[in-house]
Amino acid sequence: MQEYEEKKSEEVLEQNVKRLCAYGRSTGTHGFFIYRIYTTRQVFNKKQYKGIALKCQKQYNIIGKNLVLLLIQESGKTQFKIMNMGNMAADNAAGKRINSLLDAGSFVEIGGAVTARTTDFNMQEKETPADGVITGYGVIDGNLVYVYSQDATVLNGAIGEMHAKKISNIYDMAMKMGAPVIGLVDCAGFRLQEATDALEAFGKLYQKQSMASGVIPQITAIFGTCGGGLSIVPALTDFTFMETKNGKLFTNTPNAIPGNDISKCDTSSAKFQSETTGLADGIGTEEEILADIRSLVCMLPSNNEEDSSYEECNDDLNRVCADLANAKEDTAIALTMISDDNIFCEVKKAYAKDMVAGFIKLNGMTVGAVANRSKVYNEEAEVEAEFDGSLSADGAEKAAEFVQFCDAFNIPVLTLTNVS
Questions:
Q1: Distance between CA 361 and CA 293 in Å, rounded?
Q2: DSSP string over 312-374
């Protein structure tokens, strides 16, 4: 019975490999023609392949049932290619982030067998599992999301042609299903070896992001380097989070600014991007960022047509907020008090502090909230900052962008006003 089950599972694995490789066979995307596939058990039963399988098992440090040997034909020569059909989302930091973000056991990887297509600069000799990005879908508290996570151990996470195409493919699926896209970024930027092929794929990714704007929520979290052309990606998304210590976001390095160097002003740091430019909605440790994204996803509708942001309200709708009048100076406190179960998800918290923007729950429905304030209190009830009650340009821009997002996704907006 056990032997039958093993044989059956290998048959399913072989069928999955054939499906994954079908696109490459029909279009030449992977640069080779696959004409025979052996599963692990078949490989070990053939003496001439056993050495290859054992070597690859040791190299990838994977269990045997995930190992597949492909006989391929490239430039008229028969060669071997080993593919790991296991779920990479348990093997490295990129995969662990996905597992921490999504509900346990919900992640389904897509495109795990895709590798770099180019052969220029001897690229075919380099191992590029999944071409440096893990893509797929899963759920967060029952909400379907599509996610990609860049693997910095593969060519430092640099974006090449197939890397960008995998992300574009995720966007196509997300827009078809009407689900948010979450990007976990840790990347060295553009893969120079692939030249115009990578540039074309980059442009296609920008196009997909632009098409998805206002249709599905887009969230980006930066855990490492995000520089050069990739810095446009978080700028095009709706919400951006950065890891405090290792997160770097820049188009040009801080030293490229005349008269500046990184010791004077680190324009790539999470602190600068959250407080000065307002690009980062939140900063913190990796665990804090992933928790914030989970909370945000539960607040947002899945797309601009279907509102799934309703949930059962267990709070007393008639409860009295006894100290509400005392919170008129810091309206973030007032919004927290009136929200269901005192839940307030604030965005761009460190930018333009004279204006508050974020999401609250009223009778189980997500509501956008915008309010100006004259004082900012910390957790110890001490005054951190004071304002004269007038609207600033940065504060008005912050509020306008937030209201624009709410309008695109049919989220009602609550406004609290107390201006001088």
A1: 17
A2: ---S-TT---TTGGGGSSSHHHHHHHHSGGG-EEESSTTSSTTEEEEEEEETTEEEEEEEE-S
Going by C-alpha positions, the residue among 119, 118, 245, 249 that lies closest to residue 183 is 249
- How many CA within 13 A on the CB side of residue 298? 20
**What CA–CA distance (Å, rounded) separates 371 from 352?**
12
**Residue 207: helix, strand or coil by DSSP?**
helix
What token pair was written down for 119? 């052969």
Q: Which residue has the tokens 């430019």?
A: 277
3-state secondary structure 238-303: CEEEEECCCCEEECCCHHHCCCCCCCCCCCCEHHHHHHCCCCCCEEECHHHHHHHHHHHHHHCCCC
Amino acid at 86: G
Q: What is the pLDDT of residue 190?
A: 77
Please give the span between the terminal C-alpha atoms of the chain, in angstroms, as a whole number. 80
What is the model's pTM?
0.77
> In which element (H, E) is residue 144 found?
strand 143-150
Query: 292, 298, 285, 410: which is closest to 348 by C-alpha?
Result: 292
CA distance 197 to 212: 23
Q: Are 102 and 147 in contact (CB under 8 A)?
A: yes
Q: 391: which 2 tokens?
A: 């609207």
In Å, what is the CA distance from 166 to each residue of 94, 206, 212?
Answer: 15, 13, 16
Q: What one-letter code names the amino acid at 126?
A: K
Instruction: Check if the beta carbon of residue 364 is closer than 8 Å to that of residue 350.
Output: no
- 415 residue type, one letter: T
The neighbour count for residue 199, using CB atoms within 10 Å, is 15
Lowest mean pLDDT among 57-61, 200-204, 229-233, 267-271: 57-61
pLDDT for 52 beyond 80: no
